[in-house]
Amino acid sequence: MSTQPSQDLETFPNPQPERDYTIRIRVPEFTCLCPKTGQPDFATLHLEYVPDRLCVELKALKLYVWSFRDQGAFHEAVTNRILDDLVTACAPRFMRLTAEFNVRGGIYTSVVAEHRAAEWVQPDPVTLP
User: Which active-site residues does the annotation give?
Assistant: First the structure.
């Protein structure tokens, strides 16, 4: 296999660091294991962030997400860990990670975790006619 799962999150320089803009990434194939039963858990990850000086490189993100496939993790813990790792890697102005887990025992779980840089002020939304 030419690629393997990896915990390394690579970044690249933000091409427009003077501008607030949003990057949205959807990862529909996240898997980990239930820490109680060992059964697979499936989720779609929705990542939204306003970069500062660095952006997350997508192939590295794919390999990072893949690294959870054989790890047992509670939904809440894995969502917060992924957010923390991404924030450490790229230090965004703002980042939100939403993990929408498929049904387990008749229950759907969504976990939303956010990071906001202390000095960042959210711009006022623009309402168009």
Answer: 34, 41
The pTM assigned to this predicted structure is 0.94
- Cα dihedral angle (64, 115, 120, 89), rounded to 10 degrees? -20
What does the block give as tokens for 100? 């929408």
Q: Which long-range contacts (CB under 8 A, 24 or more apart) does 112-119 make?
A: 112/79, 113/79, 113/80, 113/83, 114/83, 115/83, 115/87, 117/52, 117/91, 117/92, 117/93
User: Can you tell me which residue has the tokens 């933000």?
Assistant: 14
pLDDT in tens, 111-126: 999 999 999 999 888 8
Query: According to the model, what pLDDT value does residue 1 have?
Result: 57
pLDDT at 12: 98
